[in-house]
Amino acid sequence: MANDILLKIEGLRASVEDKEILKGVDLTIRKGEIHAVMGPNGAGKSTLSAVLAGKPQFTVTAGTVEFLGQDLLAMSPEERAWAGIFLSFQYPVEIPGVTITNFMKTAVNAHRAGKGLEPLKAGDFLKLMREKMAFVQMKPEFAKREVNVGFSGGEKKRNEIFQMAMLDPTLAILDETDSGLDVDALRIVASGVNALHTPDKAAIVITHYQRLLDYIVPDVVHVLKDGKIVKTAGKELVAEIEEKGYDNL
Fold first, then answer.
1. pTM (2 d.p.)
2. What is the pLDDT of residue 92?
């Protein structure tokens, strides 16, 4: 049904520094669905996530993107976040001098302000933060640490899932969030993503590898190659990619 559609992309083309990366992407995501986007290096997977998040270095040259019936491309990056889009980065950045507590307090209250809500009271914020840190098995002392400074790869990714839990997005875009994770960290990150998923939300999981999709099972799998989606199927496509590779699909 049309009212179940969260995200609708039609004919999306995008460039960076005059080089066309996305060459006509069509994609529809409905409430409750998890979509995996797979493909070789340079296919345009991270460009797609960056365009959806509104990164300014990417120029959309054609196509439309609607999120909950609104023109996503007309929104600023902040407005997209307030509307319910969350992007997990492949390489989370360090923010020296800013504690996780202060960072999240600013982010949560900015989201609330964007929706016309009052800032959370200090006690309510700290209670929410403790709950979500326990949810992703993050030690309480991390709240006092500077954002991602000195964190291992797994700790950075766990911190991102914690941020996602705090912001409670409608559409989560996970851009190669499995990069550099050992098996234990992968399980924790995946369990957090699965636990946050509800019938009213959706997720786009961008990955090279089958192993993440053993834990976050997709409803739909797309192969993005040379800027276009060349194949779409169910979760069985993951095993086909593992067996044949991208060139033989």
1. 0.90
2. 79
